[in-house]
Write a structure and sequence with these properties.
Length: 234
């Protein structure tokens, strides 16, 4: 008799737990929809976190990581999906890892993730990210390959954003690649200033508001022709 009562108690407990889990899931699904309507990113993150605890899925985890990354919470994004290179990751997961690792100043690890995306779907935008990061870590040869691909495949309507000024701005992606190529040429041979300057000038000709290219040009011109210091009066 006691055994039957124990089994009955377990059955009732299981049913109660199942109902509670279902009710919770419905609650947070409704909460998620409401947060989306209100445009409340933190609320959306909260809702998906609870839903992923109640009913875990890779899709929810990837979405949660993306929301963190899109909200500049890159450490939280990586804590959600990890930093390891995994060929079975979804495109969204790889993208989040790449962007977050780059934002956290981990260029070598970021390159690994961008390479996965590039192998899946090559594009000038990914080629630029790879070239820029490879220059940072001193991998000039591979950076040059990405740059040549980017110059050959950039379309007129493709843009790249820069943030070195207080007000962000966009320039032609091809001009951005030409600037990188000039940096590569100068870093490969410090005596080849004229070739680097020619590329900077070409980039500025395409996009006259390319502030970073203008700064690079000015820096090399100052190296080539150092400004004369005024002589001291006796």
């Amino acid at each position: 008799m006691k055994k039957k009562l124990f089994v009955l108690f377990l059955s009732i407990s299981f049913i109660g737990t199942a109902q509670t889990k279902t009710d919770l899931q419905k609650h947070y699904e409704s909460f998620y929809k409401q947060m989306r309507l209100q445009g409340d990113v933190n609320g959306i993150i909260n809702a998906i976190t609870h839903l992923n605890v109640i009913s875990p899925s890779l899709e929810r985890k990837d979405t949660l990581a993306y929301l963190y990354a899109d909200n500049n919470q890159h450490m939280q994004a990586l804590n959600t999906i990890g930093v390891e290179k995994n060929d079975s990751d979804s495109d969204l997961a790889v993208q989040v890892k790449a962007i977050s690792l780059k934002a956290l100043n981990q260029p070598k690890r970021a390159i690994e993730q961008f390479e996965v995306l590039y192998k899946r779907t090559p594009s000038p935008y990914l080629a630029y990210e790879l070239a820029d990061l490879k220059i940072q870590v001193g991998n000039i040869k591979d950076a040059s390959e990405n740059i040549e691909y980017g110059i050959a495949n950039s379309k007129e309507d493709m843009k790249h954003a820069f943030y070195e000024r207080q007000q962000p701005y966009q320039v032609s992606l091809k001009a951005a690649f030409l600037h990188l190529k000039g940096l590569v040429i100068y870093n490969t041979d410090k005596n080849n200033i004229d070739a680097a300057l020619a590329l900077f000038n070409e980039a500025i000709q395409i996009d006259p508001n390319f502030n970073l290219a203008s700064l690079s040009k000015q820096a090399l011109e100052n190296i080539k022709n150092p400004p004369t210091l005024p002589s001291k009066q006796e």
